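Subject: Protein record for review, amino acid sequence with backbone structure tokens
Category: Structural biology, sequence-to-fold work with a learned token vocabulary.
Format: Residues in single-letter code; tokens as whole numbers, each standing for a residue.
Body of memo: The sequence and its backbone structure tokens, given next.
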Amino acid sequence: MASLLCLSLLAAAAAATSPGRLVPFDLLYADGVRAYLARDWARAAELLQRALHSYAGLRAARRACRAACARQEPLGGGPGRWEAALLGPVLQRARCLQQCLGRRLRPAPSAHRASRAVRRDFERREPYNYLQVAFFQKLDQAVSAAHTFFVANPQHLQMREDIEKYRRMSGVKSDSFQDLEATPHWVRAQCRATHEQLLLHPRDRSGALICSHTKAMA
């Protein structure tokens, strides 16, 4: 599961480098919730997963740009006021981030600024709460989605009851209770390096192959 999640995140990160491919996650989320309320489970599952992948791709692009701009050498400046010497590197980094994200995100970075409520939903893993219902015909995926949400929301009484029901159901294996947002540190380190490599060199997918086989190598 860790390698599958890694590949999904890599695909989202690679999408962040291709103009027109990274649909804003809040739009996908809104469409997914509408499909959920309409009981169009297959459509809801598709849109909610795409929203999660878009969110992961956006975060990967921001991480890569922050890392790239942090490595950038500060521009030399001539004599001037101390304010310029102090603020120069800050302004240079801000400009670098703006340009980097502008190259990697289509539509423009401003289109990916979701509302605070939507950002909070993703921080609290709310899409997985919807997914565990939308996946009712795919029991393993429903269990994983439910567990992923419950890890971040252990006080959620309804989900606690759902988890207990899943545990009593025949056919549910213990390894289905996986946190889809968590990967071992060695997988996470490999994926982070591969994300940055893909963002800088989209055509070089050798790292994706390495990441996909990381679990098998453990």
About this structure: The first helix runs from residue 2 to 15. Residues 15-20, 204-218 have pLDDT under 50 and may be disordered. The chain has eleven helices and no strands.
